[in-house]
Amino acid sequence: LLIEVPGSATAEGTQSPQDSDLDLIRSAQLGGVEAFAAIYDRHASAVLALGARMLASTSDAQDLLQDVFLEAWQSVREYDAARASVRTWLLVRMRSRALDRLARRTRESLLHQAAARLRGSIELPHADSERALVMRQAFAHLDEHERDVLSLMYFWGLTAPEISAQLKVAEGTVRSRIARGLRILEGVLGDAAEQEGDA
Amino acid sequence: MSVHDDQANRLLAETLAATLTPIEPAASVRAQWLERLRGPERFTLFGAEVARVFGVSPQDALAALRLTHDSSAWVAGQLPDSRWLTTPALREQNAVISQLPAATRLPKHRHSLREITFVLDGLLIENGAAVHRAGSLIDMPPGSEHELQVSSTEPCLVVFAKR
Fold it and tell me: Residues 21..50 of B with a Cβ closer than 8 Å to A: which?
């Protein structure tokens, strides 16, 4: 007896480059390993870049990459598109794992490395897509001080008092630079989303 | 906003992290990861739900789901070509993981106890109409009845408990 199965959602359909991240995630949520492999192929290089930047080691970051994507697989059923894009969801996971790894290094050595690497190390954004180009322009709107504090906060996980000590500026100044930097980035992201909506 | 703020974290992921030049991971990293995903980690995406539904710890749920990849853990079942396995944690909850071959038919039957079935892989068709895919839960109260059929094209893997 053959049973006709209604509905089209399957775990292991054939993936195509046209599939959106959300299509792939939906397949993965039904157990589609190949769909999740396509997610890896799209985003692993960005996730690895974040880990490598935070740990100052591509090799250490590659060690984490496998764990990050395994944990993402174990949490894929809880992925909520309303909260974050797939790439952001993965980046948040890598940042959290890299911060755990950084926490194992002594705080003193971490602060020393952070300060040393910050000097002259702020890069202009890499732009491989229209959206990345918008981000590149957004980042250029931040002044050097704002870029410094956001970089120390995000890539190194430093607190406002630690940044204040490293940069030798008042903690209140650090906090206002963080707030202003985030406001600028938020505004640019909002504008970019509106433009995408209009397009 | 602080670095621990979810919103700030996401915002900076979309902006600051987008400033980085992507780094292509070594092919061996992908290969090893995919081997685990196709192997022991194949069904671990259901770990949280299996833990919640069957009342075992998340670690015990993951361990049981990984065991499906171990051919020595399986025992022949009562139905032709079926097999099952369990672990101490699942056994304590009167639960097993069971694999039914394609086209297996369970004629209409009544449940004297509550029966909980969570589909891990394949399809279960209930009463010739309702289709239960991977990630679906069938919760039958005591006294209820239904008939089930496994898809004609692939086996069905379920976690099953009687309460």
Answer: 21-26, 29-30, 32-34, 36-38, 41-49
- For the CA atoms of A11, B52, A86, A175, the dihedral, rounded to the nearest 10 degrees, stands at 180
User: Are residues A30 and B134, on separate chains, in Cβ contact within 8 Å?
Assistant: yes
Residue B158 has pLDDT above 50, yes or no: yes
Instruction: Show which of residues 33-52 on chain A sit within 8 Å of chain B, judged by CB atoms.
Output: 33, 36-37, 40-41, 44-46, 48-50, 52
Give B37's Cβ-side CA count (13 Å radius).
27
The rounded distance, in Å, linking the Cα atoms of B37 and B39 is: 5
| Strand, coil or helix: B70 | coil
Does the CB of A198 have a partner CB in chain B at under 8 Å?
Answer: no
Say whether A151 and B16 touch across the interface (CB within 8 A): yes
Q: What stretches of A41-178 adopt beta strand conformation (E)? A: none
**Res A12: pLDDT:** 60
CA distances from B136 to A159, B117, B118 (A): 44, 8, 6
Pairing of strands B115-121, B75-76: unpaired
Q: Can you give the pLDDT at residue B17?
A: 82
Q: Do A78 and B20 touch (CB under 8 A)?
A: no
| pLDDT tens figures, A145-193 | 898 888 888 888 888 998 998 888 999 999 999 999 888 888 877 776 6
pTM: 0.84
Please name which of B100, B118, B123, B96 lies closest in space to residue B47, comparing C-alpha atoms.
B118
ipTM confidence: 0.92
Contact between chains at B37 and A73 (C-beta distance less than 8 A): yes
Question: A150, B16: Cβ pair inside 8 Å?
Answer: yes
